[in-house]
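Quarterly update from the structural biology core.
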Amino acid sequence: MNSLVKFFSRRRTWTIPYAIFLVLFVVMPLVLIMVYAFQAKDGGFSLENFQKFINQPEAANTFIYSIGIALITTIICIILGYPAAYILSRINSSTARVVVMLFILPMWINVLVRTLATVALFDFLRLPLGEGALIFGMVYNFIPFMIYPIYNVLQKMDHSLIEAAEDLGATPRQVFTRVVFPLSMPGVVSGIMMVFMPTISTFAIAELLTMNNIKLFGTTIQENINNGMWHYGAALSLIMLIIIGITSLFTDSSEDGTNEGLL
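Predicted structure, tokenized:
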């Protein structure tokens, strides 16, 4: 009995459920993707799935197009989200919390329901579904993920730095460009990660807002897996994961460089 009490009294013991969860739902899926990606139909080791991606221009072009859509969506979210986050950080805290809650509130609704509502809106306004509707839907669905990290960083910013810059004679423009914006970069980087990554891999939004006329990379992966082409679908998933990992490394290094520049 005492040994059992000692076992459950250790902090390390309470990490076991989380470790099991990570192994079952994070590590094992990634391992399966790796295995299937480097496996031929007969079960042997092969690079034919990656050769197929290189030799088939359709999949490569879809991947490049998806990156372009993700970049456009991310840039629009920054242009619209940064001013909104900056204004929210400057107004009364209780009012800002209400407005932030209004931004986050649509996230409580399933993404498919929100996208179907967007389709209904375009139909009501008699606007054509296509690339414009796709970008609009992407921005509508992901802009809260840009606003909240930037707002969170701006809200916690040390305002004594702004006061010091003003005391030293800095103009409002100089205060923003040399103090506020550099200090808000961690929030911007987090927002970019939270918008750019899911935009590349999404498929439901593209299918609904373009009537399945425009394919993104996530749609290509889904179609291959649904058609039983697990090996090729796993290779495409691995390629996407590698690109996401490289992007994460670049964003981390840029954030570290910004912090070093401030120091």
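The chain has one domain: 56-262.
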